[in-house]
Design goal:
By secondary structure, the protein is mostly beta strands. The protein contains no helices and 9 strands. It starts with 12 loop residues before the first strand and ends in an 11-residue tail after the last strand.
Length: 112
């Protein structure tokens, strides 16, 4: 099945203060999301069964992966293996595109 989505029609959902997300597309075993951060916002430390690729669309971030720090900025990408503890802190306002396999069922809600 082919899926074409106009991402400008997708509303952002607040994940926590300073972080919003929208699911851009999904199909087969892949999902793509965009996450928006305000300066200083941090995600909660977590891990999941999904492999993750993150691309920095804009801004500067620090990723904390298995207790190591990685500073990334616009144009950088990073791979996070499944079941590895990680979190991210926004050094500036910015956004990331995250791709997951398999699909993050927890990100889907009725109406998506």
């Amino acid at each position: 099945m082919i899926s074409i989505v106009d991402v400008n029609t997708i509303q952002r959902r607040t994940i926590k203060e300073g972080i919003q997300m929208r699911v851009l597309a999904w199909g087969g075993s892949l999902m793509m999301t965009q996450v928006f951060f305000t300066k200083g916002a941090t995600s909660d430390p977590h891990s999941h069964k999904h492999e993750q690729l993150s691309y920095v669309v804009e801004g500067d971030f620090i990723y904390f992966i298995d207790d190591k720090e990685y500073e990334v900025k616009q144009g950088y990408s990073i791979y996070i293996p499944s079941d590895v503890s990680h979190w991210v802190k926004a050094i500036t306002d910015g956004s990331l595109v995250d791709v997951f396999t398999p699909i993050r069922e927890d990100f889907l809600k009725k109406g998506d």
